[in-house]
Write a structure and sequence with these properties.
BirA Bifunctional Protein, domain 2, six-stranded mixed beta sheet, 7 helices
Amino acid sequence: MSAAFGFLDTGAHDGAWNMDSDLRRAEALDAGRAAPLLRVYHWKPWCISLGRHQKDEEIDRTRTAADGIGVVRRPTGGRAILHAEELTYSIVMPSEGRGVMEVYRLISEALTAGLKLLVPEIDIAKAQPDFQKLYREPGSIPCFSSSARYEIEFGGKKLVGRAQRRIGSAVLQHGSILIGEAHLGLADYLAVDDEVKEQLRQDMRRHTITLEDIMQRPVGRDEVRDAVRAGFEQAWGLHFSTLHDNEYIHVDEEREE
């Protein structure tokens, strides 16, 4: 991996800022204007992100507006996530000829190395569901309704939800590391009837687990951030250069419309 790989914690921003920043960084890397970057962050206000091709009408916008929940579309694929009690990461890196699953494997190994510093029993999923069939089912609206190959699990339950996209020669991957249970509230904001909402909530509860569930204590984002950083450095044999907000490359003026 590149010795110029940067690391940055940008703290809390709204959904539009977070998604636009990640997309612009990927475009800048593809254009040769930025180095690879692992960024961690969280969301203020809490926000539902939709996958790039997901239907807007799956979300009850009246309810999200009433509760002050943001809604944004990710530049990556996947399904809906309520970003709340979590640490989010985005990684922007050159593809260097690697296939999609190879990139997932590499990032999974690094994340697992870091999360094992907190929970040694963390594991990587080996099976791959039939997503074309799965996405036709109502229960597929939440991202955390199933695990894919190289997903990170504990006891067969999903701990990290992720989505990925190629932008030219750049790879952009987003991931949500669950700390608390607020992600289960996504069901309240789906445009389905109450019975289906409860089914989806229970389905997410059966298929997901959080760090606080596992560790049986409050878990801080800084603790998770430091473990993730250490895991990438260990697994990829690199030493991150730590960036600060005033060094974070935004390419608003340079971006081609």
